[in-house]
């Protein structure tokens, strides 16, 4: 299993489509065996599903995520856990313990209205 987390300064970055880094975790027998931080190559929103697919990711943990990106992830066969906040490492531990809630309705619908410091997941984006 390979898990990706939207990543910034050790935390789950709160806007999937604007993340500049993912922390990737290789998991075997329910335990993290390695991890690395990788760049997105300047890709954004729906194109990030292709980036994740190229890294062999099958599970994503993120903050807010828009409908188009959700569809792209589904089409790529990547399961996602949105609306997650806090430490990236802790979020992976919680997922591996079977305690990270899956909500397919997590959405960020604030695109295009000029919020330069918008951080999905912190003010109601995670319906």
Going by CATH, the homologous superfamily would be Dinitrogenase iron-molybdenum cofactor biosynthesis domain
- How far apart the termini lie comes to 28 Å
Number of helical regions: 3
What percent strand?
25-35%
Given helix and strand content, the structural type is alpha/beta
Number of domains: 1
Mean pLDDT value: 83
CATH class: Alpha Beta
What is the third-level CATH name, the topology? Nucleotidyltransferase, domain 5
| DSSP strand tally | 6
Question: Which shape, going by the Cα principal axes?
Answer: globular
The stretches of 5 or more residues where confidence is low (pLDDT under 50) are 109-127
Indicate the radius of gyration in whole angstroms: 13 Å
CATH architecture classification name: 2-Layer Sandwich
The main sheet comes to: 6 strands, mixed
Helix content: 10-25%
Q: What sequence of helices (H) and strands (E) makes up the elements?
A: EEEEHEHEH
Write up what this structure looks like.
By secondary structure, the chain is α/β, with parallel strands linked by helices. The protein has helices at residues 48-54, 67-75, 88-96, and strands at 2-8, 11-12, 21-28, 31-39, 59-61, 79-81. Strands 1, 2, 3, 4, 5 and 6 form a six-stranded mixed sheet that branches. The longest helix is centred in the middle third of the chain and has 9 residues, at 67-75. The model is unreliable at 109-127 (pLDDT under 50).
């Amino acid at each position: 299993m390979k898990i990706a987390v939207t990543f910034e300064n050790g935390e789950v970055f709160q806007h999937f489509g604007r993340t500049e880094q993912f922390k990737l975790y290789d998991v075997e027998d329910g335990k993290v065996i390695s991890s690395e931080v990788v760049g997105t190559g300047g890709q954004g929103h729906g194109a990030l599903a292709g980036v994740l697919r190229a890294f062999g990711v099958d599970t994503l943990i993120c903050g807010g995520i828009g409908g188009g990106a959700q569809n792209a992830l589904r089409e790529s066969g990547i399961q996602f856990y949105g609306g997650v906040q806090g430490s990236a490492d802790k979020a992976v531990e919680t997922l591996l313990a079977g305690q990270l809630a899956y909500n397919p309705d997590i959405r960020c619908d604030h695109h295009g209205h000029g919020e330069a410091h918008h951080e999905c997941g912190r003010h109601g984006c995670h319906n």
